[in-house]
Amino acid sequence: MKYFKFNVALLCVLVVLMPLFAVGCLEDMEAVFDLVNQIISEQVDPAAEPGPAAAGDSNNFEDSADTAEEVTFEPMSAEEGWVDFGTFVKLVESARWKGISPGCYDGESLTTYDYLGTETIDGITADKIEGSFTVNGGDRTAWTMWVDHGGNVVKAEANGSEMEPDTYGFFSMSAVPILVPFTLPDPEFNSEFKRSLAGENVPGWELQSFERNPGNIGGKAAYICEASFIHPAWDSQVASFTHGDFGSFKLLLEIYQAYSSSSTKTESLTFR
Questions:
Q1: What's the predicted TM-score (pTM) here?
Q2: CA-to-CA distance for 66 and 70, rounded, in angstroms?
């Protein structure tokens, strides 16, 4: 089995997440580096308009208790319901993630995501989404994508420049940093990871703690599940993950990895 160290901040996805491509997700490494260099060289002015919901965190799920539904369903089974990129686009109106990754940058990052409606691209009805990435409020990397109903990117732009189709998979991976842990193309590892997130004692995964409590996320009823475990993928140091179980889908909310002192935390989340 190949082990992959998850880099959980978007800048690491854009610049440092090359171990993922090295294990087979993308064969043309030169093209990836050319793409990354192009994006970085076209930084957006941080004073530019940040998008429809970037000004505040009014939809923080921790503040939505007054509008929350009650949890009346049973938890889902360990491996079912995990949200992928295409499903995320269908479900989420806007989201904000804060990240720390000392091996990639100094300070705190902010990644934004916003759904802007539908447009027709070459005869295909597509959801239009946009996002951005900043560190300590500095230069802003921005992108826009159009995603069809099958979850496929049909057009992508970075900092106003249209990208080539062979980069679309790279952009869909970059747009939602909380989904990065599920991008390794190793079914056995992914299965064991999902079972560990559900609190199962999986051989080779040293479960340290697990809690499941009813709560709410973005006004939706959910079980909030926290799992910590040790695995060689993280230099045999503790990694902690929090996810929401909504009864029909599951979504990661927070990631912490001791080996890299890195973290990603959902600051706000609004559903469509």
A1: 0.77
A2: 11
